[in-house]
């Protein structure tokens, strides 16, 4: 089967037939590593040639739930969870746990699914933490991150039995003032910047030295000595994260050596440090030209590097933790939009406007991110037009696709955008007072609403009109 052209390339030119998407429809190509697929593993064409995911026809979902609509494929999400678990069990001889980085997409339903698959979770705020706990994630499998945690967030974590990833001296001061009074001990990981560069977008590099996250490596010994003298603190391990949407394996290999050096130092100062947390960062395939490593290759590289680095230093193997976000949920997500207005500028450009945009997916305007899309009802029709797909916000840069090859599309057609399961809903906004979309979880032909659509009236909920300004006063 050959599908129509669906991709906007980096150069802005429309690409021809997309073999990657084709594979996804046909095979569920890389079932073991869905981060290498463009579409969810359950993506199929029905008898009429319309797209379905999780056994649900996408345009039917659009009509039933309205658009924009986030669709999440349960099978893909479970497959990525299982891929991480199985690869860790296969390639790492010690204990291990993958923690889902819930900043990628935080909801009760996702937390519940990830917990049921046996993973843990990384939260970075009280909101993400409450969502995880509300979804049934056991507190002992949760870590709380953040470069500026509030006292309230720290207290919630410690009193719930969640591990705190200490990021700076401020965290330590707040904890020292609180933990003894709570009559508790705090389980801690310590985060430092590993000083590893990797080739990804400038905004999403966190491992280099000029980073707001974690202790500078120069401070490591001082903070380890300080914590060794804190009776309220149990330092369970060390953490570092080098960035996101990374296709290279080498930086992750380098990270293992940097972490093992720090582990050696920590243990020599009397810390048990049973855990080594290597962060997340594995990329996904947004467009056909992307070629990320598989989850297996990533885990194998990390696991082998940690084993080698520990044995070189004579260290007992730590429990290996990692924090995948994007590679766990992105491919499971599809966003549906309805096409509305059309503007043709002769000899220049044709704008197709959809009913969402930068408020439900801020990644194109923020990072110039590329995506893959098709018309949900006729993905195989000849892509004879090149269009610019614009959002509905009052901002010229609110463009989801610059040059997208599509079959002629009319008002009412449903556009399906792939790879939107990570950093779309979680980074959404109400710009222009546009309500956030609903989200549905699909599986075996059944769609469950997992996030209700916001209503315009919801957006007034927290406004307060002082009585002296009230038109009735
Ligand atoms: N652990 C830590 C400490 C992190 O800071 C992050 C991501 C992760 C894990 C998960 O990384 P992942 O596996 O998703 O690459 N908004 C950006 C991505 C920001 C990532 C921030 N930290 C985007 O839309 O591309």
List keywords for this structure.
single chain, 473 residues, alpha/beta, Lyase, Ornithine Decarboxylase, Chain A, domain 1, TIM Barrel, 9-stranded mixed beta sheet, 8-stranded parallel β-barrel, 12 helices, 28% helix, globular, binds ligand LLP
Explain what you see.
- The protein has 473 residues and is an alpha/beta fold.
- The protein has two domains: 21-73 and 331-456, Lyase, Ornithine Decarboxylase, Chain A, domain 1; 74-329, Alanine racemase (TIM Barrel).
- It has twelve helices and 20 strands.
- It has helices spanning 19-26, 58-65, 74-91, 108-116, 126-134, 151-160, 169-182, 220-228, 250-268, 295-313, 326-329, 363-367, and strands at residues 44-45, 51-53, 56-57, 69-73, 96-101, 120-123, 142-144, 163-166, 186-191, 233-239, 275-277, 319-322, 333-345, 349-354, 373-375, 385-390, 399-406, 414-418, 438-443, 446-451.
- Strands 4, 13, 14, 15, 16, 17, 18, 19 and 20 form a nine-stranded mixed beta sheet that branches. An eight-stranded parallel beta barrel has the order 5-6-7-8-9-10-11-12, surrounded by six helices. A three-stranded antiparallel beta sheet has the order 1-2-3.
- Helix 6 packs across helix 7.
- It starts with 18 loop residues before the first helix and ends in a 22-residue tail after the last strand.
- The site of ligand LLP has 23 residues, from helix 11 and helix 12.
């Amino acid at each position: 089967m050959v599908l129509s052209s669906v991709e906007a390339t980096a150069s802005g030119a429309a690409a021809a037939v997309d073999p990657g998407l084709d594979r996804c429809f046909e095979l569920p190509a890389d079932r073991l590593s869905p981060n290498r697929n463009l579409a969810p593993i359950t993506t199929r064409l029905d008898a009429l040639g319309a797209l379905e995911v999780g056994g649900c026809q996408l345009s039917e979902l659009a009509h039933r739930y309205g658009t924009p609509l986030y669709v999440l494929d349960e099978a893909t999400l479970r497959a990525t969870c299982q891929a991480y678990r199985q690869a860790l069990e296969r390639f790492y001889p010690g204990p291990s746990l993958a923690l889902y980085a819930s900043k990628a997409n935080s909801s009760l339903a996702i937390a519940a699914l990830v917990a049921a698959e046996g993973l843990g979770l990384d939260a970075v705020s009280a909101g993400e933490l409450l969502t995880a706990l509300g979804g049934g994630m056991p507190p002992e499998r949760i870590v709380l991150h953040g470069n500026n945690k509030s006292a309230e967030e720290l207290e919630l974590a410690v009193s719930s039995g969640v591990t705190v990833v200490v990021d700076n001296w401020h965290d330590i001061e707040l904890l020292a003032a609180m933990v003894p009074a709570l009559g508790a001990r705090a389980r801690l990981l310590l985060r430092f910047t590993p000083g590893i560069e990797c080739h990804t977008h400038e905004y999403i590099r966190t491992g280099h030295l000029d980073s707001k996250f974690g202790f500078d490596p120069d401070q490591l010994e001082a903070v380890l000595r300080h914590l060794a003298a804190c009776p309220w603190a149990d330092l369970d391990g060390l953490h570092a994260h080098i960035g996101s949407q990374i296709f290279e394996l080498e930086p992750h290999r380098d990270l293992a050596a940097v972490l093992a050096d720090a582990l050696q130092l920590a243990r020599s100062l009397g810390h048990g440090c049973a855990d080594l947390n290597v962060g997340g960062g594995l990329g996904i395939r947004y467009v056909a030209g992307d070629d990320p490593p598989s989850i297996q290759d990533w885990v194998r590289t990390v696991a082998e590097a940690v084993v080698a680095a520990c044995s070189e230093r004579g260290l007992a193997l730590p429990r290996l933790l990692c924090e995948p976000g994007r590679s766990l949920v992105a491919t499971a997500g599809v966003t549906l939009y309805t096409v509305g207005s059309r503007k043709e500028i002769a000899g220049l450009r044709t704008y197709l406007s959809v009913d969402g945009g930068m408020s439900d997916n801020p990644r194109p305007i923020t990072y110039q991110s590329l995506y893959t899309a098709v018309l949900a009802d006729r993905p195989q029709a000849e892509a004879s037009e090149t269009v610019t797909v614009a959002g509905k916000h009052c901002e010229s840069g609110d463009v989801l696709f610059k040059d997208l090859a599509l079959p002629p599309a009319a008002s009412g057609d449903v556009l399906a955008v792939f790879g939107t399961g990570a950093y779309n809903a979680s980074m959404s906004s109400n710009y222009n007072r546009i309500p956030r979309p609903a989200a549905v979880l699909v599986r075996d032909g059944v769609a469950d609403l997992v996030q209700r659509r916001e209503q315009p009236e919801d957006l007034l909920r927290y406004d307060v009109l002082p009585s002296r300004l009230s038109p009735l006063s």
